[in-house]
Every structure is written in structure tokens, then in C-alpha cells.
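Subject — a protein and its fold
Fields — amino acid sequence, C-alpha cells
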Amino acid sequence: MEPARLRAILARAPGLVARHLKIATATTGTATAVLTADSLPALLAQRLPTRMKEWLEAPDHRLIDSDQRWIEANQAQILCCLDPDYPPALAGADGSPAMLYACGSPSPLGRPALAIVGAPQASAAGIETAGRFAAQLARAGLSIVSGLAEGIDTAAHQGALAAAGPCIGVCTAGLDRIHPARSARLAAQIRGGGGCLVSLFAPGTPPRRYHFPLRNRLIAALAAGVLVVEAIDGSGALSLAAHARRLQRRVFAVPGSIRDPQSRACNQLIRDGATLVQHSSELLEDLNLNNIQSVTEAGTARDGSPPLDNKYEMLLDAAGFEPVDIDVLALRTGWSGHAVASMLLLLELQGRVAPQPGGRYCRLS
């Protein structure tokens, strides 16, 4: 059997994990653990779950033909847990997958990584924070991992791409069915920008509800730590943080206002033992990764902007970091609403504030 076809068959085997293949290759008598034609009989000699054994004995060759055509046409690959390109962080995780579908450069998979996740309906401040952290940490040499969702996930990917840093997108469906569909362009940017898209699911597989916890576990396993930037109670980000703890990964959270529902879960994570972070350098220090590459706290929206005079600084101080409307700012400063609105326009153009629903504004820096 051709090696590529064997990989395609094994990748669709229900429940197959790295442990099964490592046992099989250990019994073939080869000097190193590699996938060969002898691996399949050695695998079938083990006590396997019924569905896995039935598939390995009689795979659907039409599906395998389709998989191989798509992989070849899209320059994708199936990474095996025995390959040198298989992510080293994932190799040490309990129950790691035997095979992984991948598109793009496998290089980011071999670097130390940090997952950045959070709310799909994130605030402007949360999106700015996630993008800034991602850019600074990507410049420092970390691969940024996230799940291609809207909000914080997208901001993390975009921050890493803007910094021309390594980026990994983890999918909830086959690599030919990016979910959500509006993230297809982002996925193409990751792939074209030297990043990597990975999935546990074969081409043609649509997103299903039970895929999300599997995707979250894979994100946690690929990273040395997980940073949560804004999350509501019961969100997928909290599930991912729980996976990270079970895998003995570090969990970090950005604190927020006690009155902001988007910050409630992050604040609870910190109360439950997650590490509070305010700067990217703190993450590198806590993960013992300071030697990767120096990182600065520059790169915020202030870079290249002219200095503000005292009145604009006073307006930013009056705004704080929670959404606030013009009338409240006028009351706090004693200035007219017209003057406040004009100043906010300049601050928005400089990236210091962002408009919010209901005519409110949120300070970003």
C-alpha cells in the first residue's frame, strides 16, 4: 500500500490516537518509529475498539480516493505522530491524535506557541488587546494559536499576521469547510502568510456541535499556555481553559471591569488561579520563554501618533476603559457636548477610542 494512502486510511480511523501507532511501530522491528506498510498489520494485532477495527479492515475507498484528490490539489498533507514535523507540544499530550490534517507551512507547529482566545462578540478594547498581544508575542517568536472564530480569535490571528509572525488556525470542520464561512478569507491569509491550518477532521466534514470541544482541546494541547481576553460565563473560552488545566498548560487572563459582563469570566478565571497579565513580557517571563527573542511593549495604537495635549489626556482619563457616552463625558469634564464630540473624532482617527453601540465610546489605549 502506498504511504500516502495508508495515511489517509489511518486519518479516518475512528478513535485512533498516537499511542496505538507507537505500539504498532514498536513491534515491527525497525530501528526508528516510522510508518510503513507493516504498521497496519501490527496495528490490527492490537486490541482495538470495534469501529476502528472494522474501518481499518474495510475502509471506504471512495472516501479515501476523494481525500487524496483534495489533499493533492490543495497542497495539503496528513501529519503522522511519528513524523518529525508533528507538533512537539502535541506529541507529549495524553491521548494526542495519531494523524492531523494540515495546510500551509508546518514550521509554526514546531515553535513554542501561545493560544489566544475569547468572546466572539468582543468589545473594541478586547479586540485591540488581543491583536496587540498577538503581534508582540509573534514578533518575539511565539506561534499564535486560535480557532478562526469571530471576535478575539480573529483579532489574535490578524495581530500575528500583521507582525509577519507564525500563526496556527485550528478548524472545527474539514480544511475545505472553514467555519464560520466568513473566516475563509482569514484562513487563506494564514495559509498564504507562512502560517498553518490544522484539523482533526477529514475533507468534506461539516462543523458539528461535538467538534468544538475537540477543537478546543487541540488548541490547548498545541500551546504552552492559553490567554483568555474577554469571555462570558459558559463560553467556549472557559471550556478551552479547562482543557488547558487538564493538560497542565498555563492559563492567563486579562482582567476587566467588575461591571462588564465580557470581563466576568476572565475575572473569575483569575480568582480560580489563572495568572493575571497586563503586558506581553509578563507572559514570556511566566512561560520561561524570554530567550526566544526580545519583545517590547511598543506597537500599540499610539505608535507614530502625535503627542496629545493636556485636554485630550484629560478626556481619556475621564472616559476610563468602559463604554461611555458624550453626555457623561461632558458632565465629567465640564466641557460642551460639541467640544467633546470633536475631540472624540480626533481620538478615534488616532486609534485611541472606538465607537460602541448606543452612541458610546470606549478607550483603547
Residues 294-304 have pLDDT under 50 and may be disordered. The longest strand covers residues 99-104. Residues 107-286 form a domain with the Rossmann fold fold (CATH 3.40.50.450). The two ends are 59 Å apart (CA to CA).
